[in-house]
Amino acid sequence: MLRRLFARYSRGFGAAVVAVAALVTAANAGPARAAEPPRPTQHVLSTVAQTGR
Hints:
2 helices; 53 residues; mainly alpha
């Protein structure tokens, strides 16, 4: 009985370690970067031209 209990808890502990490792890896990966900076749309350009800002 003690052997089954140990096996159950060791599987649970192993799954927890794998889950924490996956979360730490995902957190350290960081956000993806854009290939090029976004360009302002035509609406923004025309508004800027009208207001002079």
